[in-house]
Each structure stands twice: as structure tokens, then as C-alpha cells.
């Protein structure tokens, strides 16, 4: 039941953060179509948020769960970027521009113990993320972990 609730909450959070109105259309900026970058979704929206919504938010919804992280799309950066890692003193969860120093990557790749971290590989209790999803997260971090 908890997984069903958290999955539904994650879906609602993604919908709420998608930048569309209740009719499903993007808000008008008055001159739509003249600047593709103004309406193009970010790499976070297209690549990272869906991974987090399906693989992470079920255990990290409100910030009261393991690791004290709220990983709904509106809270991801505030919970991860430049935040000290709970299970690894001296490490940051996400170091913008440096995936190799980001504890999130270590936890996803299962190398956290080699770097003084603790706990299991993430996502806990599930198979590891596919290599292409980890590569997208690495690229997002390498590009500055932008929203």
C-alpha cells in the first residue's frame, strides 16, 4: 500500500512540476516558437526526474525517510546538490561538475564503501539502475546538476 501511495504521489509531483496547465498545454510566454530553448524541457526534466520518480522517490518521498532526502522533483536539488552525505562524512551527495566525487553516484554504482560510505547500493531492495540511467545521472552532474 505504501508503494502505491508513494508512486501516486510521485506521479502527482511530476505532473505538478511539469510546467503545464490543467489542460496539458505549456503556459504561453507571449512569443512562443521564436526561441526553442525557452520552451525546451531541461535535461533534468527529460532524463533525471523520470529516473528518480520510478527508482528513488518511493523510499525518499518526504525527507523523513532514509538519508533524510525528499526526492520529489521540486525538492531534488535542495536535497542533493552541495548537501553533505549522511552516510559518508566529508562527502557531498552531489558535487556539481564532478560525478566521481558525488556520493549519489557512488551509491548508485555500489562503490560507496570504497570511499568511506555506508549502507547498501541503491536503489535499496531492487536491481541496480541500468548503466544508461547511471550515465544520464553522471552527465547531469557533470553539466552542473542544473534544474
TrEMBL record:
GO molecular function annotations of the record: electron transfer activity; heme binding; metal ion binding
Signal peptide: 1-18
PROSITE patterns: CYTC, PROKAR_LIPOPROTEIN
Segments forming domain Cytochrome c: 35-145
Key words of the record: Heme, Iron, Metal-binding, Signal
Compositionally biased tracts (Polar residues): 19-28
Spans annotated as Disordered: 19-38
InterPro entries assigned: Cyt_c-like_dom (IPR009056), Cyt_c-like_dom_sf (IPR036909)
Species assigned in the record: Caenibius tardaugens NBRC 16725
Keyword Isomerase: no
Superkingdom per UniProt: Bacteria
Name assigned to this protein: Cytochrome c domain-containing protein
Amino acid at each position: 500500500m505504501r508503494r502505491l501511495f508513494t508512486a501516486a504521489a510521485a506521479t502527482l509531483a511530476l505532473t505538478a512540476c511539469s510546467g503545464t496547465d490543467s489542460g496539458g498545454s505549456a503556459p504561453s510566454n507571449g512569443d512562443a516558437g521564436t526561441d526553442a530553448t525557452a520552451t525546451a524541457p531541461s535535461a533534468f526534466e527529460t532524463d533525471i526526474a523520470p529516473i528518480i520518480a520510478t527508482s528513488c522517490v518511493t523510499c525518499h518521498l518526504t525527507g523523513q525517510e532514509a538519508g533524510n532526502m525528499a526526492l520529489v522533483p521540486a525538492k531534488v536539488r535542495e536535497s542533493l546538490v552541495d548537501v553533505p552525505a549522511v552516510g559518508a562524512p566529508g562527502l557531498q551527495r552531489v558535487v556539481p561538475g564532478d560525478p566521481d566525487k558525488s556520493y549519489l553516484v557512488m551509491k548508485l554504482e555500489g562503490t560507496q564503501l570504497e570511499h568511506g560510505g555506508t549502507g547498501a547500493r541503491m536503489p535499496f531492495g531492487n536491481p541496480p539502475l541500468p548503466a544508461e540511467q547511471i550515465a544520464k545521472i553522471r552527465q547531469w552532474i557533470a553539466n552542473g546538476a542544473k534544474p
